[in-house]
C-alpha cells in the first residue's frame, strides 16, 4: 500500500509500472475512478 523501489516486493504483488512516483502514489485512486466509470458505462449499455 505504498510506492516501492524496483527492489520492493515481487512483481506478482504489484500494480504498475508507472511513469513516475506521483503516478504510482495515485494508482489506487486512479483505479477506483476507472472502475466507477466502467460500472456506470456498463449500466448504460443496452447490449446492442
Number of DSSP strand runs: 0
- Assembly classification: single chain
Number of helices: 2
Low-confidence stretches: none
Q: N-to-C terminal Cα separation, in Å?
A: 40 Å
Strand content: under 5%
Computed CA radius of gyration, to the nearest angstrom: 15 Å
Mean pLDDT: 86
Helix content: 40-55%
Biased composition (Basic and acidic residues): 31-48
Region (Disordered): 25-48
Protein name: SPOR domain-containing protein
Organism: Thermocatellispora tengchongensis
Overview features:
SPOR domain-containing protein, 48 residues, elongated, single chain, mainly alpha
Task: Give a description of the structure.
This protein is an all-alpha fold and 48 residues long. It has helices at 21-25, 27-44. The protein has one domain. The chain is built from two helices and no strands. The termini are far apart. The model has no long low-confidence stretch (mean pLDDT 86). Residues 25-48 are annotated as: Disordered.
